[in-house]
Amino acid sequence: MSAKRKHEVEDENDTSSRYHPNADQAASFGIVLRDFYPPEMSNARCESYTNGTLERPMETLERAYIETEQQREGISANAAVVHWFKTDLRIHDNRALQAAYNLARETKIPLITLYILSPEDLIAHLISPARVDLILRTLTQLQRDLSELDIPLYIETQTDRSAIPTRIVDLCHEWGANNLFANIEYEVDELRREALFVRLCAGNGIALETKHDTCVVPPGSLASQTGKQYAVYTHWFRAWVTFLDRNPDVLSVGEEIGSNSGDARRVFSSLFDCPLPEAPEAKRLDQDTAVRMRALYPAGEHEGQRRLEAFLEEKGKGYDEERNFLDGQSTSVLSPYFASGLLSTRTAVVQARKANGNRIAGGEVGYISWISEVAWRDFYRHVLVHWPFICMNKCFKPAYTNLDWSYNEDQFTAWATGRTGYPVVDAAMRQMNHDGWMHNRARMIVSSFLSKDLLIDWRRGERYFMEHLIDGDFASNHGGWGFGSSTGVDPQPYFRIFNPLRQSERFDPDGNYIRKWVEELRDIEGNAVHAPYERGAGGVARRNGYPEPIVKHDEARDRALKRFKEVTSGGK
Question: Residue limits of the Photolyase/cryptochrome alpha/beta domain (predicted)?
Fold first, then answer.
């Protein structure tokens, strides 16, 4: 490592130029959760990550492995092997679980699986009540499936998130486990924790082994000819496809694990049928919503696999033509299963490739288009690992943090509750508030509207999505908001200002999506439903209590362009 290179821990007190003009106002709206995170970092510090003078958290983890190698090599298996479930709540195609099972089988000792519920993590990471509910329902099924293989799933709640590593070490000692496996999570908090955890385990006679599992292609594997990381998806995707062609083992799906080794039922009998925790009070669904979510999103990996197979068989070929239309259901709705690890993206790509005649390039355009959409999940994680400051309330283009954002509470509330006077925007927000999910095209429309038409700080929308979506995933959510607000990779602020009316007419041509979710407009016939106050249906809309548009799009567009120009030209 270069002598110029700073380790993260050496630069924690850098507060120079930390705030942008609206930082205090942004913080007052909860954009920076001060209970868990420090104030907003400086743009200069972001640049230190970009130019490589500040060590990235992934590199910190890699260094921890290098520096503890001799300690870990001297550790032998003992009475058990442990797999720590995190966002990988499945048995099928789970890299770390497979490795743990293989070691247990080779050494003829039992495998124990572990899940720690951390209410503080749920709050700090803005996990929605709907996603918490899906996780807890899935744990019930996972525990049952593992029990059929004589593998216990031990679950406990840890109120102090910082105490989780020490608690796991204590459990390993209690069980006589010298080997611990887990899959890597790529967010900054998790990578920093894992780096410290590798050292803690090694110092306590435990070998922690972490696996790349969430991404099809591990972060850091793709680079341009000049050695730089890709920040434009089209270039990155071509490299991703080429990498898979040259490294077919990356797409290997692990064998199904079998029955547990050793006599786990006798030795670890107390770990079976471990009681499942309840959701923390702040993350509980009301009864009606819980019933609805359970009907919309049945729990577990079996449902994820069923949905994948049904989608590829019934809708895969036509996906490219139909995927942008808001009415009906032309997409897979697998994102809730990907987000919590009930289904691996690797499995999805492998099965889509098989449906496409074992091709990732060429063949049926529908399958190729869907694989490309799944690959966005990899892309945003690759971006996260290389530019980790996006986990720290900064956008990919840090200068855009300095844009003179608005914090108009009335307008934000109108957007959040689906009362903007723009029917397609309101339909999308009402769908999310009711179903915990939103079509990707709708996500682009509403994020552009909040950040461009209303010029409200995009981070408020990012947070609202995380707190309401059942598929809330930090990397994908942040990436989507970076796209919609033109503050992320490949921003194009001068072209990417969506006209809500044109989007509505193009992707909901009959207005059925609007009528489904905006009940005040159900009686309006024809294309007036897209803009009732402009097309002679204002009387009906007004009588039914539907609001007039809160801004004029053309004026808002001009204002947004001016604000972005001020930042890019150095005027702010």
Answer: 79-216
pLDDT in tens, 128-171: 999 999 999 999 999 999 999 999 999 999 999 999 999 999 99
CA-wise closest residue to 427 among 395, 399, 449, 400: 449
Answer for the pair 17, 43: CB distance below 8 angstroms, yes or no.
yes
CA–CA separation, 374 and 367 (whole Å): 11
- C-alpha to C-alpha distance for 505 and 491, rounded to whole angstroms: 25
CA distance 260 to 91: 13
Domain ranges of the chain: 8-55, 56-386, 398-568
Residue type, 321: E
Output the 3-class SS for 273-326: CCCCCCCCHHHCCCHHHHHHHHHHCCCCHHHHHHHHHHHHHHCCCCHHHHCCCC
Give burial (CB, 10 Å; 0-12/13-18/19+) of 369: middle
CATH class in words for 56-386 = alpha beta
pTM: 0.93
Tens of pLDDT, residue by residue over 83-105, are: 999 999 999 999 999 999 999 99
How many angstroms separate the CA atoms of 498 and 444, rounded?
8
Catalytic residue positions?
373, 376, 405, 440, 458, 481
Could you check whether 56-386 and 398-568 share the same CATH topology?
no
